[in-house]
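ESCALATION

Customer reports they have been waiting on this structure for their group meeting. Please prioritize. Original submission:
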Amino acid sequence: MLITPEYLFSSVSAITPAFLKEKGVDALVLDVDDTLTAHGSQQLDAEVEQWLGRMRAAGVKLMIVSNNTKKRVSPFAARLGLPFVSMACKPLTFGLAAARRRFGVPRARMAIVGDQLFTDRLAASFFGIPALVVSPRGGPARKDIQFKRRLEQPFLRRYYQKGGKLL
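Update from on-call: job pushed to the front of the queue and completed.
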């Protein structure tokens, strides 16, 4: 299904190098807002920082691909030492295609990590890569995000009805 998650994780830190190896993934495209940090924040939780360290130590290639502006993404990516693509236009695949070229890997070796079904999951479906959907980080969402979260509920229910588990 285009929008129903393939994999649903409690947070980015629940994604392990062993899981990625099992799935043949060695390059991750990372969303920023509500995935790595709270929406609009430039702060990184210690848990996420440690997770990034584990991914790097395992040799996983990492790149931020965000729909947000360069002004928002650039300082965040620089602090993490990660390359980035801003204004990615997810669910369109321009940003994912740019990341794949920069990674130098085939699609079969990459996945996206994000919190939204109508952007991250749908972009992954269109591009033909797995989506590792995470529960959103941070505090209360903006009104537009709250609206999207309500629209996501039937797809999340379908995930669980099909036997999916929170990883």
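Sent to customer with the following note: The chain has a mean pLDDT of 93.
Escalation resolved.
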